[in-house]
Amino acid sequence: MKTTKIKVPEATVSRLSVYSRYLEQALEKGIVTVSSADIAKNVGVTPAQVRKDLAYFGEFGTRGVGYKVEELLKYIKKILGINTTWNVAIIGAGNLGTALCRYKGFQKRGFHIKGVFDKDANKIGQIMCNNIKVKHIENIPQEIKKNDITLAIIAVPASAAQEVVDILVKSGIKGIINFAPQTVNVPKGVFLRQVDLAAQLEVLTFNLNEEVLK
Amino acid sequence: MKTTKIKVPEATVSRLSVYSRYLEQALEKGIVTVSSADIAKNVGVTPAQVRKDLAYFGEFGTRGVGYKVEELLKYIKKILGINTTWNVAIIGAGNLGTALCRYKGFQKRGFHIKGVFDKDANKIGQIMCNNIKVKHIENIPQEIKKNDITLAIIAVPASAAQEVVDILVKSGIKGIINFAPQTVNVPKGVFLRQVDLAAQLEVLTFNLNEEVLK
DNA sequence: TAGATTGTTAATCGATTAACAATC
DNA sequence: TAGATTGTTAATCGATTAACAATC
Fold this sequence. Notes:
The structure is a homodimer.
Chain A: H1 10-28, E1 33-34, H2 36-43, H3 47-55, E2 67-68, H4 69-80, E3 86-91, H5 95-102, H6 104-108, E4 111-118, E5 127-129, E6 132-136, H7 140-146, E7 151-154, H8 158-170, E8 175-178, E9 191-194, H9 197-213
Parallel strand pairs in A: 3-4, 3-7, 4-6, 7-8, 8-9
Antiparallel strand pairs in A: 1-2, 5-6
Helix pairs in contact in A: 1-4, 2-3
The structure holds a DNA duplex.
């Protein structure tokens, strides 16, 4: 694999996920070869964008021909690191945590939920998904080691988010998705993504408001 | 209100949501005035960024002093269009749809779930949240009109996403959040946001992979 | 007044798009 | 070969940051 010298934009990485989903669908349909224009049309970007995104990582196509679907899919999965499976912990066994635990989309992409944690005594011991019992937050460090968990999803109230982040970081977690609507801090070397569901709706209402003003 | 001539970056809009959350917390704590540096420190951006973001919409501060928390919060909420409430439909009464229906974070920001729809006969008639009964997808057009619903959240399988989008658009929905991992098309004048949960994890695994290569 | 902090402009940085030579 | 499409460079566009005059 080519060692990347130039920094890859985060937007490029997100788009690679989208390309890979399209390629999976194309593969199912029995499509063998696609052009950057095909990919672009199906995912709503420009062909130049597709080629540029791929160019960060190497040369995967054939001039005059295009890309082999199966091959390109394999490459992108490797680039994204999803040629292997990953073990994931969910913190917070409320509605959202439960739903995420049962969400098929994670399994489908090789993410296996291996632990669900909460503080609430009523929830501990309950079975959430895949026969996983909710454990107390205290057990995070040992469970993460025992089950080789690398990623964590936070689905606790905003007020508890930073505390949970700190526990996770101390336990050696390297990547966190935070669903709590709360800015949190992680040390260098730990990757964080903030997913703010209400803020998503607010971008829509902003746009609707602007439309009215026009 | 100043009519915006210059296009506001989407990133600015998202940050306004984040600023407003911080301001709400500050208000609760009884903080009266904040500087751009205060906001910046708490949400993890630069003070210049905060001032630039606000400058798209007017002058809300006092030089040498800062911003009045309560006042700025009110302005931002008005800009985002969340000085009023919005009615929302959820399509898909599976795990994710159910969780989103019960999610407190929406209510807290003035988003009221007024309808939940599914195709599955077993789900129809079940009570999801706020005493809302799941209705068949066929009922979307009339329910949307009846309940004055403007926004919709799609939580159906990828294969059904475009079909649902088309129904929603035909019913007059103006803003859609799509949780299905599927690129969909909307006509001009309808706003769409794609929230791809697995892709979020994949950005993390990409980063972890890169770290290893270094 | 002196110190603080805004609002705004200009400079920088980064990402997207267009264009085209390379090449299948 | 001629047509098609990649990979890559240069041009454009847009967003962030730095700097500072305005002003409380």
